[in-house]
Amino acid sequence: MNYKKTFITEEITYSNDVTITIEGPVDAHTLRQMTFDEGLNSFRVPEEQFEAIIEIAELPEGRIIVARIDNHIIGYTTYLYPDPLERWSDGNLPYILELGAIELSLNYRKYGLGNKMLKLAMQAPEMEDFIVITTEYYWHWDLKNSGLDVYEYQKIMHKMMAKGGLEVFATDDPEIISHPANSLMARIGKNITQEQMEAFDQLRFMNRFFF
Fold first, then answer.
1. Which is it for strands 96-104 and 131-136: parallel, antiparallel or unpaired?
2. Start-end of H helices in 39-188
3. Considering only CA atoms, which of 135, 139, 114, 118 is closest in space to residue 127?
4. What's the pLDDT tens digit per position in 15-33?
5. Res. 209: pLDDT tops 60
6. Are the C-beta atoms of 18 and 110 separated by less than 8 Å?
7. Handedness of CA 134, 5, 73, 12 (dihedral sign)
8. b/e map of 168-185 (b: 16 or more CB within 10 Å)?
9. pTM confidence score
10. Rounded Cα gap, residues 152 and 162, in angstroms
11. Distance, CA of 192 to CA of 94 (rounded, Å)
12. Helix (H, G, I), strand (E, B) or coil at 156
């Protein structure tokens, strides 16, 4: 599999003279030279989450995109192979990558950085060799701070993921179908073959019954 990691960077200056850099994939050595915002605590305490993304960056397939101010990380997205405990890892298909997490510190959610990180990640030419999936579960969403209900938040997530070329795909995965706000989304790279697509379809529907 092609584990090339084309580094892309973009600087955005906002009206209040805040300059934010979006870039990646960032390697583990570079990440260790940065600091991690205390507001990045949706999944675990910031120190542990920072270590987790460094570990992902060390994986052959791992890709970390960050949003930073100077040397301070205020947002990130992760890409890696699906969890071995989930159906998406069945068959160890090397062309399926999972967008495992996207997180922004609460104070920086007004800049549209999630959209920008997703778009930048997909600019790398090697991403056309992958099917990139994300499993959206409402219990991972920050409903409390957003003030939105699950369906309002779902619309925002779908719109943001669409900026990275992801769209909703049907599945019979029990966790996803356990609530109508949950969804499977995917971006199909331009170099994905019909055979690879059929293998992905088999993962999406594993509970078919024949009579």
1. parallel
2. 46-57, 113-121, 143-146, 150-163, 174-177
3. 118
4. 778 899 999 999 999 999 9
5. no
6. no
7. negative
8. ebebebeebeeeebbbbb
9. 0.91
10. 16
11. 12
12. helix
Tokens representing residue 208 in the block: 């078919």
Closest CA to 130 of 166, 102, 172, 101: 166
105-137 exposure pattern, b = at least 16 Cβ within 10 A, e = fewer: beebbebebbebbbebbbebeebebbbbbbbbe
Backbone φ and ψ for 125, nearest 5 degrees, come out as -60, -30
Tokens of 183: 């969804």
Q: Residue 121: is its pLDDT beyond 50?
A: yes
Instruction: Locate 137 and state its tokens.
Output: 């579960």
What tokens does 30 get?
């570079």
Strand, helix or coil for residue 78: strand
Give the amino acid at 22. I
